[in-house]
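Protocol step 4 of 6: structure prediction from sequence.
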Amino acid sequence: MTAARRVLLEGADVQRALTRIAHELLEANKGAADLVLLGIPRRGVPLAHRLAARIADVEGAEVPVGSLDVTMYRDDLRHHPTRTLLPTELPAGGVDGKVAVLVDDVLYSGRTVRAALDALNDLGRPRAVRLAVLVDRGHRELPIRADHVGRNLPTSSAERVGVLLSETDGRDAVEISTPGAAGQGGAR
């Protein structure tokens, strides 16, 4: 049984959203000084690299990028199949005293972000932590909100939001599907 899938954002829409987030980050931080972008695998890592490239285009400054695997910090490990551990890679300067920006594709329940905060706590003490997401679909189970959002997409709990990125999926798009639809990309 396959349900219909709708494309909500095309490649150009994704690019515009990332450009807007990059500008918001620079404005909130008053420049690129002391920013560190930490992508949450899978799709948060390429998004963090794209944001760093946009910041470099605007500010002429390189922002360090790393990745933060949250697998072992999740509170739902016993409810899901075994997950592959992905590398956590901090930039050479670490995160102490920096403004760490957690970057992810979709904000849903808030549990991934909670796990990321726990993981980050074990790695250092940033001066501040911000959250940038491409899509905020609502349905929070924890009191967590994003500081920078590419697009708010009100959804039902039964729908799935899939983010496709050229680095992992061959194209950029955000799709929404209903139960029974063949999933593609990072669906949540």
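Step 5 (inspection) to follow. The chain has a mean pLDDT of 92.
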